[in-house]
Amino acid sequence: MRAPPGAIMRQTAKGPETTERTSPMGQYHLTVNLDKREFVHPHKLASGLKLWEQLACEIGPGKALIVLLAHPERRGGGDLDTSSELAQRTIGRWRGDRIAIIGDYAENGDLPNKQPGDLPASEIYSAGWLDITDDVCAVIEHELQGKFTGEGWRDFRRDGDEDQRPDMVLEIEA
Predict the structure, then answer these.
(1) Mean pLDDT in the chain?
(2) This model's pTM is above 0.85
């Protein structure tokens, strides 16, 4: 027996029983393009999946959106470098499209202005859309002169930065 969405299942003396979840675990979020059916993955951008983690992150999906929504033509000092083929296909790629932040607990009524052919909001998080994060990471690495490192939840280090993070933290109670 499977518990319905939003419920938890537990074994009782009388058999399996479902109850409504009173305090859901943290919700994971992806930034998605509803028109192109693409997404950026926070872990690849050195960020957590929860909204607060993404907000507090130095790089993360916020920087990715700057790359993806910027006008692709350089029009003055401070614009992004579009000299590479990768930058040309990435910078401004989502400009003018419908963008949303979708959680794994999304409900079907969460997205206003649904278009014909749109997936229900509850299915988008796990829909298997195209992950374009690696291209976005390459643009960010070039622009900020750094490198995303590691597997899974990556780190970002600027060129010349030493690793300031300890391998282990010990708490000693007095």
Answers:
(1) 85
(2) no
